[in-house]
Structure formats: C-alpha cells, structure tokens
Amino acid sequence: MCVRSVWLDCDSGFDDALALMVLARAPQIELVGISTVVGNTSLDNTTANTLAVAEFCGLDTPIYRGAAKPLAQEPQTIERLLGAGAMGTLGRCFPAARRTAEPVDAIQALTATLRSAAPRSITILATGPLTNIAVVLLLHPDLVDAIDSVVWMGGSTTSGNHTAAAEFNAYADPEALDGVLRSGAALRMFGLNLTQQVLITPDHEQQLRAIGTERAAIVADHVGYYLRMTDPTTPRPAALHDPSAAAYLLWPGLFELAPARVDVELSRSLGRGATICELRVPRKADPNALVAATADGEKVMACVMAEIHAHLT
C-alpha cells in the first residue's frame, strides 16, 4: 500500500471536523502535521475545535496555531451561520481537549516539514482560507518543490455562497489564494460546484443516532444543527464541503477533475474573491490548476459515513 504524507490546514468548523474524522484512521494516510487558521471562526476557536476533534479521534498528530488574520483584510468569520465557535449543535459537543497546541507556530512547522521532505512528497489538504500556505510559499518559494499537490476546498466554477460571486474560503483571503496560484504549486480545487453534489441528509443524521452510543450522539447533534442552519424547524440536505476534498485523497476514482486556468478577483468590488475558471475547450489559457468537476455523490457519502461510523462504536 502506498502511504501518502498529508499536512492538514484547517479552520475547524463542523465540516472540517468531519474531514479530520474521515482521514484519522485511513491506513493510506500519514498525517504529518495539522495547522489552524482564522476562517469559519477566530484562530483561538479553530485551534480549540481542532484539538478537541483530534482527541475525539484518538490522534496525537502535532497541531500548530497559524495565521490569526488574512494577508490584506480583516477576518471574515461565519459563526452567525455555523453557530457558536463554528460548531453549532442541537445539544452535545465534542469534549474539550486536554492537550494544547505546539509551542512552534504553523508557519515555522510547515516550513521545517517541507524543508526536510523529499521532492513532491507532501500533500497539503487545505479546508479553509489559504493564508498559512501562502505565507510559507511567499517566504520560501523553493519549498514548492516538496509539495505534491495542494488539495483545497474552496472557490467555485459558478456562483458563490458568501457573496453572489465568491465562495467563503476564497473571499476570506483572496490574496492568499492568488499567492498560491502564482507559486507554481499543483492546486486541486474542490469548489461549491463539486461539493454541492455531495449531500449529507436527515437520513444520515438518523443513521448516526441509531448507533446508540454517546460518541455517535455527539456527532449526530452537530450534524443535526448543520442540517437545520437555514430553518431550525426542518432538517434539509446540505452540501458536505470539506469532507469532499478529504474523500478525494482516499477515493480519487469517485471524482473527475479538469485542467483549468484559475484566477481570483482581488479588487474591492462586488466580485472580490470570485474564482474565474477558464474551462473552455479549446483552451484559451494555460492551466494552473485541476478543478473538480463531478463526483459520484452517493458513493462519496457512503464512504465518508463508513469512516465516521468507525469512530463511534
């Protein structure tokens, strides 16, 4: 079995938590480090959430605090949607972690990891704004040679969700996305156009509750809140954003990616943070990314739920 060395960069949030659960026990994944970044909520919250979920999963992977603000704007958080600390729940919560983040910060830790790695040996899975990754590559552009790919949940080939034009992770730090796009890193973009094909549903919530353990009830209460974000009285299917990108690392055959030229709008306008994806055939520009286009959503969800269930019995 080929084992992939993965660095997870996240802004945990609930769907980041599920992405971590998907990877935690996978034998084909070696999590070499986890970094946190401001995004869904403050850096303090994303770090506390990540520590809690890692401990829930039995992971001892080192966790490092990263950027507390974007490169060129004030933080944009979405607790109003995701609930307190971006971990909304119907009742139960992940228990607070007993351990703390490492004393070294994420920029130093990721730099050291890439510096000591063989060429193209580290996959970065980024499920939040790309601030940490951009800072490392702006300070040390040669380290791009150690990166196999940056698998990023963010952007969209169509419309946005934070604004009409922009997906949240792109809008939260568009300058960072621009820096990664210009770095030469092999970007794999899993945008809203893809994640909206992978739906978690009220049936999945009930499957979790049927397990009957306290651990399963905790996850079910978080899932239940997520399904009721737009209407507290009625659970509705919802796109499973970050776990879709994590699933690609385990089951790439369930996804189709297409080469594209990706640019991000940096102006202080209504279009700020929009990802412009040149996908026309014949090509009108040289590609700088692979963009996830389609997924077998039902199979992806079945695989994701199987990994999550393994943590809950």
From TrEMBL:
Keywords: Glycosidase, Hydrolase. It comes from the Bacteria. GO terms for molecular function: purine nucleosidase activity. Pfam families: IU_nuc_hydro. InterPro entries: Inosine/uridine_hydrolase_dom, IUNH, Ribo_hydro-like. Residues 6-301 form the Inosine/uridine-preferring nucleoside hydrolase domain. One of its GO terms (cellular component) is cytosol. GO terms for biological process: purine nucleoside catabolic process. This is Nucleoside hydrolase. It comes from Nocardia nova.
